[in-house]
Amino acid sequence: MDGSSWGQGSAWMARLHDASAHALYLHVPFCVRKCAYCDFASRATQANDPLMAAYVGALRQQMREAHELGLLDGIQTAYVGGGTPTLVGASLLASLVGDVRELAPGVAELSCEANPDSLGDEVLQTLVRSGATRVSIGVQSLNDAELQALGRVHDARTACERVRAAVASGLDVSCDLMCATPCQDDASWQSTLAQVAGLAVGHASVYPLQLEEGTPLGERWADEGPAWNDPEVQARRMEAAAAVLGDSGYVRYEVASYAREGKVCRHNQAYWTGRPYLGLGVAASSMLTREGYQRLRRACVQLPVIDDDVSRVRLTVASGAQDIAREPALEALRFDIELLDEAQAAAEDLMLGMRLSAGVGPELLGHARSTLGEARVDGAIASCVERDLAAWDGERLEPTHDGWLLGNELYGTLWDLAPGEVREASA
Ligand code: SF4
């Protein structure tokens, strides 16, 4: 359960130069309809939309190219996310998951995101047969009024039934839950939490609703902060989640993530522990070392030459679903790019590591001190400890209860250690 063995073991420094990614993300941007709060890269579509087959075919081609470049050699986890990947149906899903198994044989955890309404028995069996190990289900709530207010397609009964079926299939099951939403009160939230714990899932993720510009809920409430989404309500609901799930045997290993013994999501941990990852598909993000970026450039001639001091490259796919389906080759993709030097990458790793209950260990702290300056790092840490945002546990620096509640303060203090501006480019 401890994040340290996976997060910051003795090989931590080696991953700063690993030319392969450790984690693979495939984005499938199709949904039955847009939820009222959603600003993710997804589009409402019909189940028989031919674009889905062309798009999945394009992702498969891009995976093959990445494999030929050696970018999949070190992949240990994969995540098919969305959107609603299960909407593409059993056959396309099987081809995608099967390709991951073939091209990244080192994958130990292969997750697929799903929504209850498109997670039929056939899709579940397909996921099991094709080699998925885990399904992450967008339950959000087990209260029908809340689900309707969020614009979700499913109802509570369907969600419970499909979660039970997923657990029975033998896959590891995670439920995504959302708090501080319209129509929710303390009692209905407690009820959702208790029911989810009773469904015997191994993992749950819990997030407060964010009102985003351009979404129906965001526009409706643009001028007034609604009482149901007040920061105090958000904090109270997150604490209720910690209490109910904690009493039911889940350990909170990350600010928004709870797992029973052995059920931590290794893929998500990659994002918080400086492991390079490759994202394919609309709006998918990659984080590559300098060496990994040079590999990608062999196929992507559109990518710029980078300065000698760049040690980490973040890329976000800027091409749309139709563009990707029409021109699948990696060399046709458009990217938004961020270039970090070693010191900026160290500050980023410190910040992300503090999302984990295990915090950051001596290897990362030592590296941060040598790249960012010992006095500066120790000063920032002392300030976090003084404000009760972080605390020492032996040689590890861990977030406190207040540190998680006031995450932006904690993460902001550590990110402010990064010198200069992150350079940006597009290709
Ligand atoms: S199912 Fe998820 S990705 Fe699709 S519209 Fe709803 S929130 Fe967005």
Walk me through the structure.
It is a single chain. The chain has 427 residues and is an alpha/beta fold. The chain folds into 2 domains: 3-270, pyruvate-formate lyase- activating enzyme (Alpha-Beta Horseshoe); 359-415, no CATH class. It has 17 helices and 17 strands. It has helices at 3-7, 50-68, 90-103, 121-130, 144-150, 156-169, 186-198, 216-220, 231-247, 266-272, 290-299, 321-326, 342-353, 362-372, 374-386, 401-405, 407-415, and strands spanning 23-28, 30-31, 43-44, 77-82, 109-114, 134-140, 172-179, 203-208, 251-254, 257-259, 277-280, 285-289, 310-317, 335-341, 390-393, 396-399, 423-426. The strands form 4 sheets. The chain has a 9-stranded mixed beta sheet with strand order 9-10-8-7-6-5-4-1-11, sandwiched between helices. It has a 4-stranded antiparallel beta sheet with strand order 12-13-14-17. Strand 15 (390-393) and strand 16 form a beta hairpin. Helix 7 packs parallel to helix 9, helix 13 runs antiparallel to helix 14 (362-372) and helix 13 (342-353) runs antiparallel to helix 17 (407-415). The longest helix is centred in the N-terminal third of the chain and has 19 residues, at 50-68. The two termini are 40 Å apart. Residues 31, 34-35, 38, 40, 42, 82-84, 115, 138 line the site of iron/sulfur cluster (SF4).
